[in-house]
Design a protein that fits this description.
With 490 residues, the protein is mainly α. The protein contains 26 helices and no strands.
């Protein structure tokens, strides 16, 4: 049952509609009990399912129905996968299989012709694993190929094997890094460099677009954990230079190229390089039109979110709000950013109304978005309650926050958040003291860790609230002023 619920919860609203159409088409009878079970589980119904579906107790039939529904969901997921990202690779596997059949049947001319076609396609796609299968087949029959010498095939086989091994080592390094980062090491970048060295991986043109994307993904995950995007900028730029060097292959790897553009634009934004971030977002929007807009739906929301963020932090809040409202089905990150925009413009009632849409538990949201999203959501909620003068909610939320997140924040080496909460408490209890020199000195000492150039933009947005209160200025105005500070921002 748990696997079945996980599969159902993983579907987007569009995928739900697609699955229902898929299931209806597959049902050979008028029996729609699998669809009925699917709908009940989507509504979080877990009790007496057999009674609701069969009208009587029938655990055995329910168990069989659950298994059929799970198989349908797996089949649907695989079918959709083959119809998008993997279509060209599946075509390659068909070519290899066909070539083997032709060669086994001694139809050598068409067999070698099919292998040649598969080889050219696999090289253009940087599909080193499939190339291994192609060369493995070719070398067995190379003595019968009048157009290629066995030495040429073996050389190509050995050269591809090197690339295949590099990619295999990267997969192992990626998995090791993901596991290591879960323990929140003190110096994540040192860990990344060490793991790349352990697996003897160099960041160069031999890495495929998929591998370069995976590297960027794990590096940005590390930066998110530590709120230190400045620390990865050189590393990310190096990877992106390799991508640019291979740009002539980008159309063959459109999905991964779009992912790379999205990650790079996000990194530039977090480092306050707004001009470059906007340029990359523009390129992302152009690239998503390719291949008949196959990935437009998948990336349009992300592009609009980045566009809105860049505009919001460069003094165009109205246009930023327009951009974010264009996102048709905003994900949780986009919704939280929208609330942040409203809060910065001091639309506190609207911000609270949107915040109330997050009616699930923090545990639920942590599984979906991670611990940092949950912490930001809770901090923003406390600030909204402070502004709306709801003392009981402020007090209970602060107590709950410290009780639940103190240990986690210490593990993340983010004690600054706890200091921030204590300062908020001091301000809320004694608001008249915030303009006094003693309070300002306390704030300055608490956050004297990074320069403005190195501090993360979202971290600065929270600091801006305190400084706005200290200076008796609008929150948004102080936020923009902080971004322009070259060194100290308190």
């Amino acid at each position: 049952m748990n696997d079945l619920i996980t599969l159902i919860n993983s579907l987007s609203s569009d995928e739900v509609a697609a699955f229902l159409a898929f299931a209806k088409a597959k049902n050979q009878r008028t029996d729609v009990k699998n669809i009925q079970l699917f709908q009940l589980l989507r509504k979080d119904v877990r009790v007496d399912l057999d009674l609701k579906i069969y009208g009587k107790a029938n655990k055995n039939a329910l168990h069989a129905l659950q298994n059929r529904l799970k198989e349908n969901l797996i089949d649907f997921t695989a079918t959709r996968g083959f119809s998008s990202d993997s279509q060209e690779e599946m075509q390659l596997f068909k070519f290899v299989l066909a070539a083997r059949i032709f060669l086994e049947q001694e139809h050598y001319a068409i067999g070698f012709k099919t292998l040649k076609k598969a080889t050219a396609k696999a090289i253009s796609l940087e599909s080193y694993a499939i190339l291994q299968e192609i060369y493995h087949t070719h070398v067995q029959y190379a003595h019968l190929d009048p157009k290629t010498t066995i030495e040429e095939v073996i050389t190509a086989y050995q050269e591809n094997e090197k690339r295949y091994l590099i990619e295999s080592r990267l997969v192992m390094a990626y998995a090791t890094l993901k596991k290591t980062l879960k323990s929140h090491p003190a110096n994540v970048y040192q860990v990344i460099q060490q793991q790349l060295a352990v697996f003897d991986i160099s960041i160069d043109h031999n890495l495929s677009f998929k591998s370069l994307y995976q590297l960027m993904r794990v590096v940005t995950d590390a930066a998110t954990l530590t709120s230190d995007y400045a620390g990865i900028s050189i590393f990310m730029n190096h990877i992106y230079e390799v991508v640019e060097h291979k740009k002539h292959l980008a159309d063959k790897h459109l999905y991964y190229h779009l992912e790379i553009l999205n990650l790079m634009a996000g990194t530039c934004f977090r480092n306050k390089d707004f001009i470059r971030s906007q340029q990359l977002v523009g390129e992302l929007q152009l690239e998503m039109q390719k291949n008949k807009g196959a990935y437009k739906k998948q990336f349009l929301g992300r592009a609009l979110l980045l566009k809105a963020l860049n505009r919001n932090y460069t003094g165009e809040p109205e246009r930023a709000m327009e951009d974010i409202q264009q996102i048709q089905k905003p994900d949780l990150s986009a919704q939280l950013v929208h609330i942040t925009f409203l809060f910065q413009q001091q639309s506190f009632i609207r911000a609270r109304k949107m915040m109330n849409n997050f009616y699930h538990s923090d545990q639920f949201y942590e599984k979906k978005e991670g611990i940092l999203w949950v912490i930001q959501k809770n901090l923003l909620e406390i600030l909204i309650y402070i502004e709306l003068q709801q003392p009981d909610l402020v007090a209970s939320k602060m107590r709950s926050f410290i009780r639940r997140f103190k240990g986690r924040l210490e593990d993340l080496n983010e004690q600054r958040v706890l200091v921030f909460i204590k300062l908020l408490q001091s301000y809320y209890d004694r608001p008249c003291e915030i303009t006094e020199e003693g309070f300002q000195n306390k704030v300055q000492q608490a956050f004297k860790r990074k320069t403005a150039a190195r501090e993360d933009i979202f971290v600065m947005s929270f600091y801006a609230y305190l400084k706005a209160k200290m200076q008796k200025k609008p929150i948004y105005q102080v936020t923009l002023e902080l971004l322009q500070q070259p060194v100290e921002f308190f």
